[in-house]
Specification:
This protein has helices spanning 19-32, 47-51, 63-67, 95-104, 111-118, 136-144, 156-175, 197-213, 225-232, 237-240, 251-262; strands spanning 6-10, 37-41, 77-79, 86-89, 125-129, 147-153, 184-190. With 266 residues, it is of the alpha/beta class. The protein has a seven-stranded mixed β-sheet, with helices on both faces. Helix 5 runs parallel beside helix 6 (136-144) and helix 7 (156-175) packs parallel to helix 8. It starts with 5 loop residues before the first strand and ends with a helix. It binds adenosine-5'-triphosphate and magnesium ion (MG). Magnesium ion binds next to helix 1.
């Protein structure tokens, strides 16, 4: 069982690259390995509600409450799926307004980190599902995290965008003077369609890109319409279609995280 708490932020500088899909499936995979997982929806669009089949939460039962000034430690986690060790702290549209408030609040960038320090969570691993827009919420995620994962789509702008994101995240960690700096644990190619020549071509180039950035490259997550079907049913693919080959696409990352957590490295 885990000795240290890992807080993994899932960040990308574009919408729709598979952040929430990675967050959900990784959470489930870690839960299956007997880790208790807290999944936090930092996106005002509250995508986790759909992926977990949850009714929308009122602001006072969402992450918005946690970041509000009068939070006293009653984290509003709810169970994600039947018989799983994953719990969700739901998102709320008011988060976009809270992001504006944080800009002028003292220690605004550290609010989530402060909450986790002052009111510790019991989960072994916490996963932060970040919004697509880089800003105060993502800065909070970086400040609270012990490691970052960066999904990357196999399109031209995403490949260059991933390099920009990595530089941005490093700059934020420097500016916030985080001690220790959360490492970027890896790039995760997502929505990979092997029938598309351009995807195969970019996938071939990624090891070079990753090594220039000195970041690990994880195996790709394949494009499969079953991901959409699973989330439309409020389930991870591992629960919706346990025998589907894409379920295995999360195994390497989960193995790595388990090892890093057990070694106390994240
Ligand atoms: N590997 C995949 N195969 C097929 N569809 C996928 C895959 N990954 C994600 N999708 C679908 O693509 C859409 C965007 O994915 P997801 O919500 O995970 O991305 P995101 O980066 O979190 O987006 P946002 O920026 O809106 O938060 C969703 O409809 C999702 O079901
Ligand atoms: Mg998302």
């Amino acid at each position: 069982m885990a000795k240290h708490k890992a807080v993994i932020a899932i960040l990308a500088n574009a919408g729709g690259v598979g952040k929430t899909t990675l967050a959900v499936h990784l959470a489930y995979e870690l839960g299956r390995r007997n880790f208790s997982v807290g999944l936090i929806d930092l996106d005002p669009q509250r995508a986790l509600d759909v992926f977990c089949g949850l009714p929308s939460a009122a602001a006072e039962f969402s992450i918005a409450q946690v970041l509000s000034k009068d939070f006293r430690g009653n984290w509003p986690f709810v169970s994600a799926w039947e018989n799983s060790k994953v719990e969700v702290c739901q998102g709320h549209p008011i988060m976009s307004k809270i992001a504006d408030d944080l800009v002028i609040r003292r220690r605004g960038e550290y609010t989530l980190a402060d909450r986790m320090k002052n009111y510790p969570l019991s989960h072994d691993v916490v996963i932060l599902d970040c919004p697509a827009t880089l800003g105060m919420i993502c800065e909070n995620a970086i400040a609270a995290s012990t490691g970052l994962l960066v999904p990357i789509q196999l399109e031209m702008k995403s490949v260059s965008g991933a390099a920009d994101l990595v530089q941005w995240a490093i700059a934020i960690a420097d500016e916030l003077d985080l001690e220790p700096r959360p490492p970027i644990l890896g790039l995760v190619p997502s929505l990979y369609d092997h029938t598309r020549a351009i995807h195969r071509q970019y996938l071939q180039q990624l090891p070079e890109v990753a090594s220039q950035l000195r970041i690990k490259l994880y195996p790709q997550i394949r494009d499969s319409s079953e991901f959409k079907n699973a989330s439309a049913n409020g389930l991870p693919l591992q629960k919706y279609r346990p025998a589907h080959p894409a379920c295995k696409d999360f195994v390497t990352i989960a193995n790595d995280l388990v090892k890093l957590v057990k070694e106390g490295k994240i």
